[in-house]
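Weekend entry, working from home. Most of the wet-lab plans are on hold until the incubator is repaired, so I used the time to fold the two sequences that have been sitting in the queue since the last round of cloning. Logging both here for the record. First:
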Amino acid sequence: MKEKRSMTRQSEWMVWLITCVLAWSLGAGAQVGWANENDEVRVTILHVNDLYQIASLRNGKLGGFARLTTLRKQLEKENPNTFVLFSGDLYEPSALGNAVVDGRPLLGRHAVGVLNEVGVDYMTFGDHEFNMSADQFYDRLGESRFRMLSSNLFEEDGQPFPGVVANGLLSALDEQGRDVTIGVLGVTKPFRTKIPMKYVDHYEAIAQQLAKLEKRADMIIALTHFPRKEDMAIAQRYPAINLILGADDHEHMKLEQEGMATVYKSDSNARSVYVLDLYINRQAKSWRIEDRLVALDESIEQDPTTLAKVEKWIEIGFRGFEAAGLEPRRVLGQTPVDLDGLESSIRNRPTRLTQLIGEGMLRAGQDAGAQVAYYPAGLVRLDDILPTDYVVREFDVMRTIPFEVDIATVTMAGEALLKVLESGHGKIGTGRYIIPQGAERDDQGRWTVQGQALDPSGTYKVVTLAGPTTANVVAKHGSMKDALRNELGRLLKKVAN
């Protein structure tokens, strides 16, 4: 597998390294190596996770792979010992990934192509890396110029996937000739996939890799793709892990508990990222962390080379959609209000956008007598705000709901509906959080449907997701995208000339 560092970066690194060696050999006026017990080496980590959209958000003002490249270059200029670590979820889900190009859906090909420009030192798998066929998955691995790492996901025979290692080492050398080594392991939560593979229990995998890394590394980092609760359990169980860089929750967070590794997670789609300065003292066998959350806003310019790659892949994807008869560039109208689709919002509370989707579903089931609609927050992947006066195009509908999901009105017992609503409400902060329309919950946990108390012994007509095995179907209504598009048609205003 090709290294992600360019020849230019390798050359700069070699010049700097030779300078350090010459300084050491000539005794360049300063103490060299680990001369004092308080000496530290600073290592900078840029942490990212859950990158589904290659372009910037907020109408070009926030996030995006091109700003990641710029930030990485800025950090490297400040400290040559800078590394980019990625905790998974890149290939899917993505609206652009659904575009058929050369007879096959892109399914992450565009994302890998752009991430090659960003420059990543190690990436571990997210569960969504496996939402495709085996040959497409292996294609993505072969296209990657960055190093992949997984301690608990292997081929069926227990061997690593091609180009993937079970652990890694990051080596840093400062201008005084002091060197440190950081060990890296990576684990991913259980998931379903059609790709033949072997899943090793993550606790077992962590123990195996710690045994290999503890004697070789001054500090150990775990890249994890788990919900926050499991990250804290890992931190508690394995005190030999010094730092956990997580994913899956899609919101930035810093979780601390005395005597345990701190857990950091950045925002999805690089809206903001954690930059960590690690100060490692090999002599004292100690380390400390200084962190900062960096918003990738307009204060950070977009790297022109990476931006060109982003625009190239978007054009390739759009042409693929158009060849299939879709119209991603078609203007639907202009927003009269902000439409909040940020995952940090929609996985915790209703927004005007999620209400709009629910209203569209209810309207679709109107003739069938629908009283309530619901859907899981994980189906909405916009992770953006469409601001007031934003010109909405068909691609915005596609990136809001990148899945092909049909809806239907079904009859449902009141007791079953109550169970779904209450269980889904308890999943707040996750993709399984249920977003209802036509049903509300008060502060005492009592549910109403259309303003009347939900009767567990009653029967309700409910618009929900539909599949081949959906029972008690009253009427089918097409897709969730159709419901959203139709409701947008009622909300949006004409674009001013």
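Second, folded right after the first finished:
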Amino acid sequence: MFIHPSWNINSAKRIHKNNIQAINIVFMDTFFAYNRSTTSIFY
């Protein structure tokens, strides 16, 4: 999702997959900290 413009296409595609997972983890960690009771809905 956050692709640095100097990266080439192949590494950008590969890192894009990893970024989606990483951002989901960060988002869920943040959301879990705010609202523990509803986080389980998203797992």
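Plan for Monday: verify the second prediction. DSSP finds two helices and no strands in the chain.
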